[in-house]
Amino acid sequence: MNAAARFEGPGVSPVFRARKLSKTYRMGEVEVHALRDVDLDIIEGEFVVLLGPSGSGKSTLLNILGGLDSPTSGDAQWRDHQLVGAGDAELTRYRREHVGFVFQFYNLIPSLTVLENVQLVTEIADRPLDPLEVLKLVGLERRIDHFPSQLSGGEQQRVAVARAIVKSPDVLLCDEPTGALDYETGKVVLAAIARANEQLGTTTIVITHNAAIAGMADRVLRLGGGRIVGETRNPRRLSAEEVTW
Ligand SMILES: Nc1ncnc2c1ncn2[C@@H]1O[C@H](COP(=O)(O)OP(=O)(O)OP(=O)(O)O)[C@@H](O)[C@H]1O
């Protein structure tokens, strides 16, 4: 069964709309169904957590929504941007103008300082935020002249979050943002992501293996075998400080 994570009815207009998204990999004789007929709507400003075991299709779904991958069949749109069948140039523009990514590993430029890593993005963004303000938002205003090698993993991940949000993206997509971090540092990074969602209104999707993080979301989608197998809404979102695991 594919639980239909669709919004119906008046007054609700999703920013993401995916229908019957499927992704199949063929490896010789073997077919891997990474996604099977996924229907999904996400509304503006929503904080969605994607949970599910390894191989359930979380990254595949996130990458399609982020314009990094394309499905084998089905349809996906962000506002009026068609994400399926779009050319490379169009997808690059979509990503550059609208999407911020945070991955498990930070991919900072080692020869640039914290501030410079974040400033770099503002040079190609249409409506960037002030890099110093964003570094304040992630609690790194005192480390702006440090190089990545002089920072802890959690601090580097917060620079990566700042870099993702400084262009004021409409969408923030995070794939295991705390996967490489210890408990305390993970919480600080989650707090930074939640703050971007709350203060900037950024539609946020976070993939995690950590079910405790689900408490921070408006909505939790569980994937299994390439399908959405469960959907819950939290009546109240927990702050990063309230989450324990
Ligand atoms: N490039 C690829 N070639 C072949 N199979 C792939 C490829 N990318 C992903 N898959 C397969 O598709 C399925 C879904 O992968 P996906 O990375 O979306 O899962 P996931 O839920 O994000 O897993 P994890 O939590 O381990 O990151 C898996 O079975 C995976 O092996």
Automatic annotation (TrEMBL):
InterPro entries in the cross-refs: AAA+_ATPase, ABC_transporter-like_ATP-bd, ABC_transporter-like_CS, ABC_transpr_LolD-like, MacB-like_ATP-bd, P-loop_NTPase
Protein name in UniProt: ABC transporter ATP-binding protein
Domain annotation ABC transporter: ranges: 16-245
GO molecular function, one term: ATP binding
Functional description taken from the UniProt entry: Involved in beta-(1-->2)glucan export. Transmembrane domains (TMD) form a pore in the inner membrane and the ATP-binding domain (NBD) is responsible for energy generation.
Family affiliation: Belongs to the ABC transporter superfamily.
Keyword Signal found: no
Keyword DNA damage on entry: no
Keywords: ATP-binding, Nucleotide-binding, Transport
One Pfam family it belongs to: ABC_tran
